[in-house]
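Possible race condition, two jobs.
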Amino acid sequence: MAAARRHKRVAASQPGFLPLKSDLDGNSSDIKRRKRVNKNKKKNWNKYSDIQDVEEFLEDVRLQEKAVGGLIAEKPDDSLFFVDTGEKDKDTQPQTTVKKGKRSKPLRIDLILRPDSLIPAPKNVLAFQQPNAKKQRRMAEKAAKLAAMGVVPRREKLLQLRRAAAASGLSDKEKPVANNNPERAFYDLWSAGAPETADPYYLEQTKKKLVKRPDRLNEKPSVLPAIEVVAPGASYNPDFFSHQDLLREAHEVEVKKLKAEEKLKRQLAVNEDIATKESNFKEQVEGLIEEGDSEPEEPEGDAEDTVIGPTATQEKKTEKERKKEKAQRIKELQTKAERQKIDKQQQLFQLRSIRSDLKKQEQRTKMRQAQRKAKQEAQKSMPRRLGRLKFQAPDLDIQLSDELAGSLRSLKPEGSILKDRFKSLQKRNLIEPRERAKFKRKYKLKYTEKRAFREIQ
């Protein structure tokens, strides 16, 4: 009983609390004596705990919020009290009458639907949520920070430039010519299409105008011509010296091929030392025959002279020796610093040599740039590596001196135009080098004898 009264006193003594009901301090006779139970067990906490005073306190708080809109103790005096100074003037009274002498009253349905609670409705969180709100807030903060620094975003800058270009275009545009002017330009009704007068940016975004092709795509991958003129020695009736030059060139190509084959043979050659009967027998009996009964000689000197481990312990230095070493180190550092100072002073007298070295370095740089540029120009006429295979130049179509024909009538056709064009495309970096696909059967062929053929046999 004492505990219940104490709880009520605590609830009533809360700051800012004015109860609407004055029955907190009831008679002691109304309060029944509680049963003494053990509160150490969890099952008895809610069963035998008296929280009536707390519930009454919370109910009174809810009643105040519903009726007044908050705690009465927190409300100002103007909202709770007013000064009665008599009847109000008729002029100041609001004109709420519909008919003369009668005051308008709200309908009963409006009174029923009118909320009787001053507690505001709960805020709908989902109605105020926005997708990516955190990201947009971060972007807005970053834009405000950049605007304070004077940095304009790229999209805003492009918009300003586009507006400025449109404004300048409109100002420079001439006035349209009247239809009845005989000097106006002739309009072809059957022309390919009417000129576009819309904004170029709008045309690009709506795919009505093609994007400008980059200049690098218009460059040829190779400077070689589509059709190369063969050497003069390849004619059906060539000059002697031109024919010999062509034969020499073909000879050098064949020599390179032979050298490459010989090099490959040398690398893949097997050791020519062949095993004989004697070598096989010697290998089999090796380790079975004792070469001598003499024992290995012992090394000179006693075993006691052999030192295992550290030869000697490091002796501790005296104070005098340590001071001497420290002075020596300080002297070396001073000598090194003086030497560096002298070297810096000597550099002043080497300005001419430094200037000449700089000139030589600039000349070497210019020479390397010229070499690099020449190398790049030479690579433009060379086939690049476009695939897993390297480009292999085709064999030269030549005829020996005794195979030359004296006239076009007796000339025999050599080579293939299709292969020549195919190699030309590879050489000009238009297609990658390729090789003929190898035919491979998925299933092996199966031979069977037909019944009719078997009967004939």
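Job #2 (started ~2 s after job #1):
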Amino acid sequence: MDTSEFRRRGKEMVDYVADYLEGIEGRQVYPDVEPGYLRPLVPACAPEEPDTFEDIISDVEKIIMPGAASPACTELETVMMDWLGKMLELPEAFLAGGAGEGGGVIQGSASEATLVALLAARTKVIRRLQAASPELTPASIMDKLVAYSSDQAHSSVERAGLIGAVRLRAIPSDGNFAMRASALREALDRDKAAGLIPFFVVATLGTTSCCSFDNLLEVGPICAQEDLWLHIDAAYAGSAFICPEFRHLLNGVEFADSFNFNPHKWLLVNFDCSAMWVKKRTDLTGAFKLDPVYLKHSHQDSGLITDYRHWQIPLGRRFRSLKMWFVFRLYGVRGLQAYIRKHVQLAHEFESLVLQDPRFEICMKVTLGLVCFRLKGSNQVNEALLQRINDAKKIHLVPCHLRDKFVLRLAICSRTTESAHVRLAWAHIRELAGAVLEAERAAETKS
């Protein structure tokens, strides 16, 4: 959709809303549709090719409005999470439409998803231990609980541990900045020997610093053997798994209890939209379900509906699945795959430009849309380069530390980025690098 069509469609939507408001007194205040009405009206999978905007708007009136906002808000979310799960080729156990016990829910962020998973895992282990030893109190169990993640995990994992009031162990990553089985096993054995209770592991696929991937095929079996809840945080990288050539990065997901990524990061869905799946939805509802009289309704015990207020921390929810429906239909699966592939191609183009300049080095294998690079030399010279880049305000880079190295990161993440922008960014970086190195030589000469 170009800017001209965007203007036209925007005006059409204002007219749609205005017409709705003008005719609102002719609409029922409560829908006639029964729970489960929506799924038979929409396809089982996302379309491969784009649908027209006119067809989508027509379906809004025919399919959504008869059940707006309830049960359409809930039922479209369930279907869209199944659509997305199928695009990722998730195991059937994570889908709501099959015979499994799982399903998907839209959280506000990956931080929320990690916290929800940790709290559900905490409740589950406390109840399991109390069932075996009724004399144990929740407080005495919580005092011994330990969660684990790679030392490359996002800070939101540490925050989840703080909010959940449990210890969090940072497992040292290997030379590729990945969590491996040996390091996790060593930490588990040490903690169990000290009388502590391991219960929760976060594996990161596509770390924030350098887009590294924890080894699921090693970590997963250990979690299964030790009865540990395995949560996968793929906040950034998860979008790429809709492409067959990147799906192998998700191998081992079958060992997970919960999996999360952010369509609002790299799948063209506006913030906020964080997709989370669980194998057993009762693990979430068992931790969060409360039913005060003012929230009771006639269908809550029918088994026909999903009550998402029991799957999350907030009580209120927005109709976030509607924007997923629009995006998936306007682009089609192939359009979304092409978008991801273009960004990865642009990242490799930038990588090739860096490799042609002997002053620079690539610091991590480029897998998706992130390039980690630096000037060969001290951390100070790279910090000076970053300062000049961001002060110039033509492009913006966010750094990281990889072990003892200060590293610059270029992320391809805008819908409108083209090869010309990548080359412009590189020319700008090279020019500023020359100035930084000249200033360094001048300072050395003076000293």
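The mean pLDDT is 91.
Logs attached separately.
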